[in-house]
Write a structure and sequence with these properties.
The protein is α+β, with helices and mostly antiparallel strands. The protein is 31% helix and 32% strand.
C-alpha cells in the first residue's frame, strides 16, 4: 500500500527531482508538472496550466487513497493527457438538496465533455469491496457515469508500491454504445440515488 513511509521512494522511482522537502516532475510534452511538499504534506497539481480542482480533499496526506489519486494523475500525464483535460473531485447533485457524490478524477475530451471517470481506491480490501459493489448494483462508478452523461468509460483504479515497482490494478468499463444497458439498469431501479424525487 502506498503511504507516507514509502511515498518518497515511489516518487524517486517515478523520476521526481528533489529540492529540499519538495519533489517535482515536469512533463514536457504537455507542459504539465506534479509537486509534493513533504513539509506541508501537500500534493500539488498544475492548476495554473488549466488543471481543475473542485475541492482540496485529495490534495494532502490525510488519506492513503490520496496517494493513489496522485499516482493515477501521474500515469495520465505520462500518457500525455493535458492538464486542462483533467479535473479532480467533480461533484454532482441529485434531486433537491441530495448529494450525488464526488468522483476522484474526470478526464475530459477535446470539447470539454466527460470522457472517463476514475474512482481511486487503496489496493486490496477497499478496491475489492468497491468492485463487488459495482458488480452487484453499479456502485459509485455507474452512478457517476449516469450523472456525467457523456462519459464513455468508467474505471475503478488502485495502485501499490512493492519491491521498487508501481503496480496498477484497474477495472475499466466501457459505456460507449451501451446506452441500452444503462436504460435497463435505470428501469431496474439500480440507480436509486439518481431517480430520487424531491
Amino acid at each position: 500500500m502506498i503511504d507516507k513511509n514509502n511515498f518518497k521512494d515511489l516518487l524517486v522511482n517515478l523520476g521526481f527531482s528533489i529540492k529540499g522537502d519538495t519533489y517535482t516532475k515536469k512533463f514536457k510534452e504537455t507542459d504539465a508538472y506534479l509537486k509534493v511538499d513533504f513539509k506541508a504534506e501537500k500534493l500539488i497539481y498544475p492548476e495554473d496550466k488549466g488543471f481543475t480542482i473542485n475541492e482540496k480533499q485529495t490534495c494532502n496526506f490525510k488519506q492513503k487513497e490520496n496517494f493513489v489519486v496522485f499516482e493515477c494523475v501521474h500515469r495520465l500525464f505520462e500518457k500525455q493527457y493535458k492538464p486542462e483535460h483533467i479535473e479532480l473531485e467533480p461533484k454532482w447533485k441529485v434531486g433537491h438538496g441530495a448529494s450525488g457524490g464526488r468522483a476522484d478524477i474526470m478526464v475530459k475530451d477535446n470539447s470539454g465533455k466527460s470522457l472517463l471517470i476514475i474512482e481511486c481506491k487503496t489496493e486490496g480490501k477497499e478496491f475489492n469491496d468497491a468492485w463487488k459493489k459495482t458488480l452487484i448494483n453499479g456502485g459509485q462508478l455507474l452512478s457517476y457515469a449516469k450523472q456525467a452523461g457523456s462519459t464513455q468509460f468508467v474505471c475503478l483504479y488502485a495502485s501499490d508500491y512493492l519491491d521498487n515497482k508501481v503496480l496498477a490494478d484497474y477495472r475499466l468499463i466501457t459505456l460507449k454504445d451501451n446506452e441500452k444497458l444503462l436504460t435497463e439498469l435505470v428501469d431496474k431501479n439500480l440507480f436509486r440515488l439518481i431517480k430520487q424525487k424531491a
